[in-house]
Amino acid sequence: MIWNPKIEQMGRDEMTALQTARLRETVARQYRNVPFYKERFDAIGLAPEDIRSLDDLKLIPVTTKEDLRNNYPDKLFAVPRREIVRIHASTGTTGKPTPVGYTRADLDMWSECMARLISMAGVTADDTAQISFGYGLFTGALGLHYGLEKVGCSVIPISAGNTERQIMMMQDLGSTVLISTPSYALYIADTMERLGIGKDTIRLRVGLFGGEGSTEEMRAAIEDKLGILATENYGLSEVLGPGVSGECACKNGMHICEDNFIVEIVDPETMLPVPDGEWGEVVITPIHREGMSLLRYRTRDISRIMPGECPCGRTSRRMQKLRGRTDDMLIIRGVNVYPSQIEGVLIGMDGIGPHYELVVHNHRTLNSLEVRVEPTDETMLVDYGRLIEMQKRIRANLRTVLNIDADIKLVEPHSLKRFEGKARRVTFVNDED
Ligand code: DLL
């Protein structure tokens, strides 16, 4: 079902006019209310009135994570605190979190975006949704929560963790929709397998996954293990949270909520937009936010605008499943490697499980990559011949795709770390030379 046909099937000219009007309003408000933007504009002699069309967007300097840090905690809020009704924060791995403020209208807009993405995946008021994202400052749980309630689903706010209880609730309450990171979905599936609980004992039919990327291979593994359709949605706290874009049941790219966000794909070196279809860094401008509205926020995420139309009938532009982040690229002996490429190779292979860990060893002059995986058959670990043969096979497959040699370590089944939220699969180790 199309939740908001007026917006989701809007003609291109009308959408451009709507985006332009909202962009101009946003720029004027930011200039008026946020000293950081006034200074930025004044410093380069740019006036808010200079932004007349979507094409003029590129005249505005990008906003970065560092700008957020420099304006900690709330100097980028665009309204007085009494108008802010909720504060979330982004999940940084280092330093202080970045607080994000929402007005009541922002929360309404958020639920509207979520309701669209939830309906796109085929979820309706007849569904029971289990939210297995961690509740708290993270935007994932509450973002999905209010959207699901708006659609009319029965929401189970179970939060992340206690996996056996998750499965019990799933069975007893007949959850039909799972909301989590792909890693946690895999962990739940894994635990079911370990406990001998068949997928025929649960009623899940759809997974709405996000908060981190996963390869198509990983998605297929999760779909198979849980017997579901897995769709993906995207967003980040700095611009809202989940709700920027999401897949419909065609799984043909993520439809962007274009009335609320302008998504540009730029060359990360020049910050200039690249043509549709080319990969680049995602830069987002929320154009319908009150509490905090960043102009051209650099996400570091890598995607591209997908060509053509989607058979679902929505006219919105779509962004492809992310390829990674500009900052998660590893350079192993001079070769650029994305962890997602490694995942793609590993998941496609027989005899090893879908969990993995990458260890980058930094020596004084060179670095090297160690890939840890679990064999599905435990007895392999005591059969030297089979073990070596398996290691060789993985090494050769990785070499074909990545053009580097990795050290393969087969470790005991269930010994690698599992994740209830976003996975951290790469670790860096400084070795003595
Ligand atoms: O992860 C918002 C979110 C929650 C989106 C739940 C979807 C579902 P942050 O914690 O601020 O916000 O982290 C944002 O997570 O820049 C991406 O690098 C990554 N990310 C989020 N969704 C996806 C996705 C939330 N579908 C950062 N695919 C973003 C790949 C994703 N990466």
How are the secondary structure elements laid out?
Layout: H1 5-8, H2 12-33, H3 35-43, H4 65-70, E1 84-89, E2 99-103, H5 104-120, E3 128-131, H6 139-151, E4 154-156, H7 163-173, E5 177-180, H8 182-195, E6 206-210, H9 216-226, E7 229-236, E8 241-247, E9 254-256, E10 261-266, E11 280-286, E12 297-303, E13 318-319, E14 324-325, E15 330-332, E16 335-337, H10 339-347, E17 352-362, E18 367-375, H11 384-402, E19 407-410, E20 426-430
Parallel strand pairs: 3-4, 3-5, 5-6, 6-7, 17-20, 18-19
Antiparallel strand pairs: 1-2, 7-8, 8-9, 9-13, 10-11, 11-12, 12-14, 15-16, 17-18
Give an overview in words.
The protein has helices at 5-8, 12-33, 35-43, 65-70, 104-120, 139-151, 163-173, 182-195, 216-226, 339-347, 384-402, and strands spanning 84-89, 99-103, 128-131, 154-156, 177-180, 206-210, 229-236, 241-247, 254-256, 261-266, 280-286, 297-303, 318-319, 324-325, 330-332, 335-337, 352-362, 367-375, 407-410, 426-430. The chain is α/β, with parallel strands linked by helices and 433 residues long. The relative contact order is 0.11. Bound molecules: 5'-O-[hydroxy(phenylacetyl)phosphoryl]adenosine. The site of 5'-O-[hydroxy(phenylacetyl)phosphoryl]adenosine has 21 residues, from helix 6, strand 7, strand 8 and strand 12.
